[in-house]
Amino acid sequence: MSADTTQTDELSRVRSNDVPASPSSSSKPLRMRTNTAEIDSTITHPGSVKINVTGAFIVDQDSSSPTNVNGSTNGGSHDTKDIRLPNHTAVVSHIAVDIGGSLAKLVYFSREPKSREPGGRLNFMNFETDRIDDCVEFMKQLKIKQQKLNGSRPGELCVMATGGGAYKYYDKIREALGVDVLREDEMECLIIGLDFFITEIPREVFTYSETDPMHFEEPRSDIYPYLLVNIGSGVSMIKVSGPRAYQRVGGTSLGGGTLWGLLSLLTGSRTFDEMLGMAERGDNAKVDMLVGDIYGTDYGKIGLKSSTIASSFGKVFRMKREAEREAEDSGGLTNGDSDPPSSSQTNPHPSSETKAPPFSAPDISRSLLYAISNNIGQIAYLQSEKHSLSTIYFGGSFIRGHRQTMNTLSYAIKFWSNGEKKAYFLRHEGYLGAVGAFLKRQPRNWGRRGSFEESGGLGLDREYPSPGVG
Amino acid sequence: MSADTTQTDELSRVRSNDVPASPSSSSKPLRMRTNTAEIDSTITHPGSVKINVTGAFIVDQDSSSPTNVNGSTNGGSHDTKDIRLPNHTAVVSHIAVDIGGSLAKLVYFSREPKSREPGGRLNFMNFETDRIDDCVEFMKQLKIKQQKLNGSRPGELCVMATGGGAYKYYDKIREALGVDVLREDEMECLIIGLDFFITEIPREVFTYSETDPMHFEEPRSDIYPYLLVNIGSGVSMIKVSGPRAYQRVGGTSLGGGTLWGLLSLLTGSRTFDEMLGMAERGDNAKVDMLVGDIYGTDYGKIGLKSSTIASSFGKVFRMKREAEREAEDSGGLTNGDSDPPSSSQTNPHPSSETKAPPFSAPDISRSLLYAISNNIGQIAYLQSEKHSLSTIYFGGSFIRGHRQTMNTLSYAIKFWSNGEKKAYFLRHEGYLGAVGAFLKRQPRNWGRRGSFEESGGLGLDREYPSPGVG
C-alpha cells in the first residue's frame, strides 16, 4: 500500500555509476554471503565505547544488509549504502535518530554474527515522520535484538535523538523504549556528521556534472571553512569555520516539503520517487516562460539566453485562461463582455475539473524541481559570497541522489560564481544529522583525522556546548 | 467575461489611505469637473517637445480620467492614478508601451480640452499581453484622437516600446499603426522611469509597515546607489550607481508569473485580484510546516520562533497521504500492505477529484504569496549585501499595491538586515519601464532635479548607450 519501498530506486540507479557489476543484486536472497561468525563481543559501558573507523568503506552491494527487523517492508525504507567498519569489534549499544519534518532518519551499528569477517556496519534507515510509530517500533526491535546479543541490561541502550522530532516525540520514544533519550542540537549534529563523512569515508563526497556524473573527492582534513546547505522539508544554511564553530546564516522555506507538497496537489503523485521519475520525462518549457517567449529571441545585452527561464510556471496562467475562454466561447457565453465576472468570484473552482488545462504532470514536475533547485542554488551562492566561503556542501533528504536535482544545484553554483565555486554532494546526504548524533556519544577515537576532535579541544568537556549562533 | 476590470480594486483600496474623502468617487459620472478648455496647443515636432513637470502631482480622485477610448471595459485596465502636469501645455505626440511576459503597460499624455485648468496628464493603462491586439487597437484610437486634436501628420505619432514584447510584437505594432516604433532597452527604461518617480513626483515613494502602512518619502536628488527589484512575471534585480550606470546583478524565475500560474492551477482563480483577495482571508499555517510543527516549540538556540515557516506547503504531502490512506482503508484496501504500489505509478492522477485534500484555496493562496514574497525579499537582501546597497526599491506589476505583499517584502528586508535596510515602494510600481520609455523621447527639460540629465552629461548623445552589464 505504501510506496516507501520504492524510495531508494533512484538513489541506487544514480549511485550505481561507481558500481560496475551486479545489476541484479536487489533480487538476491538475503544474507547470501554471511555464513559464519567471528565477532569480538566486547561489551562496554555506553558512552565509553570506542569505534574504530580504520578501513571504513561504503558497502555498495548490500544484499547482506538486514531488512527491517520486523520483516515488514511497510514501516521504513532501508537505505542500501551501509558503511562497513571492518576493524571495529566492540558492540555499540546505542542508536541515533534524526526526526525532521517529513522523514525520520535512523543510524545504528550492527555486528554481523554470521559473517566470517570481523567488524560490523553502520546501518541507515528512514521512516516518514507521520509514521513515527513504525520508527519507534523498529527501535524497540533493535533494542530486543541488542539485548540478546549483548546481554546488556535494558537501561544500557541509549537513543541519541536530534531534529525537531527529538523534542516533539521525546516522551513517546522514552516511554515506548524505556531507555534514556539524549537530545542533541540539530545543527551541531549536522556538521559533526558532515565532518565525519568528509574526513573519514572514501568515495563519499563527490561533485556532479553531466559529463562527469560522480567525481569522488579524496577524504581530507583541511576542510574549513565551508557552507553546508541542508535541504529537508525546509532548507538551512550553516557556515562552518571549525570543528565546533558554526552559525546558521540563513535558509529558505522553499525546500523539499514545498516540492513534494505542491506536486502531490498538482500531479496526484503519491511518492517522492514517482515525482522525480515524472520530472525526468517532463519538459519545463511547456509551463515555464522562457526569455525567448517574451523577447522572441535572446536578450543579448544582458546575457540572458533565449532558453533561460524568465518565469517559472509563467505560461500557465495565460494558457489556462485561453483554454477557459475557448471553452466559454464554444459554450455560448460570447455575448457577456460587459458583465462583471461576479459569478467566478463567488465560486473559486469554476468547473476546474471539466476544463483540464493543457499541462502534463511530468512537465509540471520538472518545472517545479528546476525552480526549487535553482532557487536553493542561488541563495546558497549568495550566502557563500556574503560569508566568503568557496566550498558548498549540499546535504539533506531532498537530494536523494537524483541526477536532475544535483545537476541543477551544481549548475546554479557554477553559473552564479562564474565557475569559481563548486557544489559537493554526499552519498549519505540524508544522514548527516543522524550520524552526527550517533557520533556525539563517541567522543574519543572516532575521528582519526580530526573530524571529531579529542575532548578538551573545543569544548567537548561540556555535554551541550552552545553553538556559534550569531 | 474577463475580470480585467477588477484589477485595480485592491490598488485603490490600499492607496486610499492617503485620500481621506470620496469613497464613492468611482460611481461619479465621468468628467464631472472638466467643463471648459483653455489649452495652449503648441504643436511641435516629436522628439523636441519639452515637458514641464513643475508642480506635477498624482491625481487621486480620478473620475475625470478618460476611460478606454473605445468605451469597452474589456480590453484594458485603466490605472486610476494619473499624474497631472498643470504647467505643461505642449502637446506630446507619442505614447510609450512596455510589453512584458504577462502585462503590457501603456503611458500617454493627454490634454484636457474641456478643463478650465491648463496642462494635462500622464495616463496609465495596462493590458494582458495575450490580448496584445486590444492594446494595439487602443493605440490606434489614441492616434486618431491625437491627429484630430493636433492636426499632425500620421507619421508624426511615435510609439516608444520596451520590454520583451517590443521585439516580439515590433512588426505587428508598426504595421497596425503605420508609425515609427522606437525600441528601447528594458533595464534602461526601468531605471529612467524609477529615477523620475523618485526625484520628481511627490507622494509617490513610500515605505510600508503594518503600523504605518504608507509612509511617503520626500522626492530627493541624492538617490544613488540603489537596488531596483522589478517583479513582473519573473524578477530582475538591477544595481544602479548613477543616472545611466546600471547592471543587472541577478533575478529569480520565482515571480508573479509563478504565483499566478500555480494559483490558477491550484485554486481555480481566474484573476490576479481574486487570488490576492483569497490570500487575505487564508491561513498559511494550515498548509505550511512551521518550526512549531517540527519542534513542538520554538528552536530558541537558533532564534527561530515557533511561528516561523520552516517549509512552505510542508504540511500538504503528509496530510494528503493521510487523507488518502483513510479513504483507502475505508474502501477495503486495508489488507494490501505487502503489495507494491504499482497501480498508483501508472496512473498519475489516482482519483484526485474524488478524494479532495483538506486544503482551502485561501490557505493555499496565502501560503504561496508568502513564499514568493519572502523569497524575493531574501534574495534582494543578499544581492544588496553583495553589492553594498542600502536602499532597495520594489517595482513591477506583481506588487499591485497589495498590503500583504508589501508587508512581506518589507518584513523580509527588515528581518534579514536586522533593521538596517528598508524596502521602498511606488504607487506607479508597474509603470517604471513604460514611463522610462516615454521619457527617453524627451531628453531635455524634463528632469528638473537630475533624474534625466541634460544631453551630453552621461552619454545622452548616443541614441542607444550600452548598459553597464558586467
From TrEMBL, chains A, B:
Q: Note down the stretches annotated as region Disordered.
A: 1-33, 60-83, 324-360, 448-470
Report keywords, A-Z.
Answer: ATP-binding, Coenzyme A biosynthesis, Nucleotide-binding
Gene Ontology cellular-component terms listed: cytosol; nucleus
Q: Where is the composition biased (Low complexity)?
A: 20-29
In alphabetical order, the GO MF annotations are: ATP binding; pantothenate kinase activity
InterPro entries (alphabetical): ATPase_NBD, Type_II_PanK
Pfam families, per database record = Fumble (PF03630)
Return the Polar residues bias intervals: 61-77, 335-354
Judging by the UniProt lineage, the source's domain of life is Eukaryota
Q: What is the protein's name according to its record?
A: Fumble-domain-containing protein
Source species:
Hyaloscypha bicolor E
